[in-house]
Write a structure and sequence with these properties.
Layout: E1 21-24, E2 37-39, H1 42-52, E3 55-58, H2 64-67
Antiparallel strand pairs: 1-2, 1-3
């Protein structure tokens, strides 16, 4: 995610899921439910969380309860 734009992901920048940093609870749009933006770099993940809201998690922190959270609501939705 850090090297590839959110709306145009590039498979050349895939990372190991177990070592990644994930940002959840942002206002980013995803295709299916909860958005987990992944990063190889903790500072990049924290920057996204600061700018777009959300919190940084590690792989071990992600469970069914996290995945069942409601996506972030947009203020411009009616």
């Amino acid at each position: 995610m850090g090297r590839s734009p959110w709306d145009a992901p590039n498979d050349a920048y895939l990372i190991d899921a177990k070592t990644a940093f994930y940002v959840i609870g942002t206002n980013l749009k995803g295709a299916m439910g909860v958005v987990l933006a992944s990063f190889s770099d903790q500072q990049a993940a924290e920057k996204l969380a600061t700018i777009n809201g959300g919190r940084v998690l590690r792989f071990a922190d992600i469970d069914q309860a996290v995945l069942q959270q409601q996506p972030a609501m947009h203020h411009d939705m009616h």
